[in-house]
Each structure stands twice: as structure tokens, then as C-alpha cells.
Amino acid sequence: MPAVNWKAATKVYCGSFFNQFYPCLLCGKKSRTLLCPHCMVLLTPLQGPLCRCSLPMPGADNSQPPPLCGRCVRRPPPFAASHSPLIYSHPLDRLIQRYKHHGDLVCENALEQLLAGMPLPWPDTDVLCAVPAHWRRRWWRGFDQSQRLATRLSLLWQRPLLPALLRQHATASQQGLKRTQRERNLRRAFQCVTPVTGLTITLIDDVMTTGSSARAASRTLIDAGAHQVHVWTLARTLPHKHTLDAHNG
Ligand SMILES: [Zn+2]
Ligand SMILES: [Zn+2]
User: 16, 150, 184, 230: which has the fewest C-beta neighbours closer than 10 Å?
Assistant: First the structure.
């Protein structure tokens, strides 16, 4: 008869006794949920007035259609609208980084906790489509975070997920690149591999930074015959205040 591992047994027993509490993924304090209420209130919602690219437009009124930022005036985005419920700032950035770059899939459950209360902003959506990563990056990370996010949203919003886009080129990491460099990287980055004619599509990605990926992916779908494309990202990176003024100037 194998010897009883009392240490492990005690751990299991105590674990089951105390398992209604977890350390919060962000601050480590005991909580009934993966993110404690204190950290939940630190997540900053992105509120209007906003440009079509979800960039805040300070001083603008909530008119319909909303005013465009300087960049969108010069080059209107191919997507009809975008929506990011949260600002990509502390502490959400830590959670997404841990998930995306360190493959910590527990963070995905915490993100799902956030998604639960988020409605689909465009009820006329026919299908959801993830902004895909190149297979090499997917292989390196072991998963495609946008694809996984889109799968969860597809269940939540009761819309089919269409694998319409393929990333043709392994674009260099977009982090830290200027917008013009990002756009050069992304030219012809996507290919549409399923029929999308006449469909109203909501594109899903985790974070919108400059919007260059969203523009390139939307352009590919529109060129392939999609009726309309909307862009939903969990979070939006905001430029610093002085950059924001330059954007809108
Ligand atoms: Zn916390
Ligand atoms: Zn804009």
C-alpha cells in the first residue's frame, strides 16, 4: 500500500475548505473572484465623445455622426464604427500582457469575467471575425488571443464566428513602431479566405493601438465584398495628451 502523502492531502483538504477565495490576479488580495472589487473599479471605461476610431475628442459634443480626429479626416477608416469598452491602462495592461506574452491562461478567465456584462454594440452584425495572428506567432505563443476572445464573444453574443481572414505575412512585432511603419508592415498583410459578400461583420481584437491592423483587416473584408465592418476591441490605447492634441489638430 503506498504511503499517504499527508502534506499533499492537507493541502487538498484545506484547498477545498478555503477554495471560495483566490488571490486577486492583480493585487494578490483574497477575493471571491479572479479580480477583486478594488481592482475592478480601477479599470477605466472609454467614454465619449469619440472619433470613429475610438479616439477621445475632447471638447466635441455627442453629435451623430461623431466628429472625426485629424487622422480620420485625412484618411477615413474603412470600418463604419469601432468600440472599445475599456482604456488600455493600469491595471488592465498588466493583465493583458500576462495573458498575451506569458501565456497565463488564468487571465483569460478573468477577462471573461469582464466580458460577461458587455453587450454587442451593433445588433445588425451577421458574423464575428477575429483579427488573426500569423501562424508563426501563434505557434510561438501557443495560442491566438484574438481568436480565443472572439470564440468567447461568439458564445456570449450568439453570433457565428467566421474564420474569414488569414495573415499572409509575419509582420514584425508592432510594439514600439511609428504609425507609418506599422501601416507599411501591414500592407497586404491579410487575405480573405471565405465568401463575405453582403455580410455585416464585427472584427474582434484584444487591443487597438493605432488602429492600423483594424484598418488593414477591414479594408481586406470590404474589398472582398463585405457590406459593412465594425471593430470591437477589449481595450483602446490612448496617446499622451499632447499627442492627442496633435492628432486632432
Ligand atoms: Zn485586486
Ligand atoms: Zn479617428
Answer: 16
Q: Any alpha helices (H) in the chain, and if so which ranges?
A: 6-18, 37-40, 70-74, 92-102, 106-115, 135-141, 145-157, 179-186, 212-223, 241-248
Confidence of residue 1 (pLDDT cuts 50, 70, 90): very low
> In this structure, is residue 164 part of a structural domain?
yes
CA of 12 to the centre of ligand 1 (A): 24
Could you tell me how far CA 158 lies from the centroid of its own chain?
A: 18
Q: How far is the CA of 127 from the centre of ligand 2 (A)?
A: 24
**Residues 169-216: pLDDT tens digits?**
655 555 666 666 666 667 678 999 999 999 999 999 999 998 999 999
| pLDDT for the residue numbered 138 | 67
Domain range for 166: 30-57+64-248
Measured in angstroms, how far is the CA atom of residue 82 from the centroid of ligand 2? Answer: 10
Count of domains forming the chain: 1
- Let me know if residue 145 belongs to a domain: yes
Is 21 within the bounds of a domain? no
Residue pLDDT, tens place only, 31-46: 888 889 899 899 999 9
Rounded CA separation 23/29 (Å): 5
Task: With respect to residue 172, please indicate whether it lies within any of the assigned structural domains.
Answer: yes
